Amino acid sequence: MTENEVHICTYCRHDLPFSNFTKNSQNPIEKSFYGLVPIKAATSLFLFHKKGKVQKLIHELKYKNNKRIGIFAADILGNEIDNSNRFGAIDLIIPVPLHKDKLKRRGYNQNTSFGLQLAKILKATYTPNQLIKIEDTQSQTKKSRYNRWENLKNNFLLKNPTLFENKTILLIDDVSTTGATIEACCLELLKAKNSTIYLATIAYVE
Fold first, then answer.
1. pLDDT tens figures, 102-112
2. Which distant-in-sequence residues (6+ apart) come within 8 Å of 102 by Cβ?
3. How wide is the angle at C-alpha 148 spanned by C-alphas 146 and 149, nearest 5°?
4. In the beta sheet, which residues pair with residue 95?
5. Is the pLDDT of residue 153 over 70?
6. What is the mean pLDDT of residues 51-67?
7. How far is Cα 5 from Cα 53, in angstroms, rounded to an integer?
8. Rounded to whole angstroms, how far apart are CA atoms 30 and 43?
9. 194: closest CA among 167, 174, 176, 171?
10. Helix residue spans in the chain (DSSP H)
11. Residue 60 burial (CB < 10 Å; 0-12/13-18/19+)?
12. Residue 162 gets which letter from DSSP?
């Protein structure tokens, strides 16, 4: 690995499962929200496979606070979004929030480095403290989409909806699995009048 390959070596990068969703309308992540929430456009950088390279990267980011992974992903995805005619100019970047107790235990939100770097590239404002999670729900990993939704609906709160009126919002997360968490966040964000929501995640679970 050379000095310029801080995040991941060139060989490994070429071997990563890039999704190419950004340039494609009706991609799988967009289709997963059809009829649920009106997301203007959605993308993920990678396809997530169990025990694959992307799972290892997400683990480094989520549990070891390896901020370089978030920056690496944002550098690529941010430029894709910036050069895409499917994404409008973004005003605000909102991370899917952690409950305050989980944030205290973990010490960080794994989406922070990803969001801050996206904000730089897209000339947007990173806004991490307006959308909050009300209850510290138990692990969602083994739940079905319906059970996740039942566990999450009405569990997010937009503190000041007027700040988001007439704004173009990019909601971000590390991984999209069933989409229940993202759906719940979007429904809360849509309480802001004339808001437009786009979505970007680092990985998408097929």
1. 899 999 999 99
2. 136
3. 65
4. 172
5. no
6. 93
7. 16
8. 7
9. 167
10. 10-14, 28-31, 53-64, 67-82, 100-106, 112-122, 145-152, 180-189
11. middle
12. G
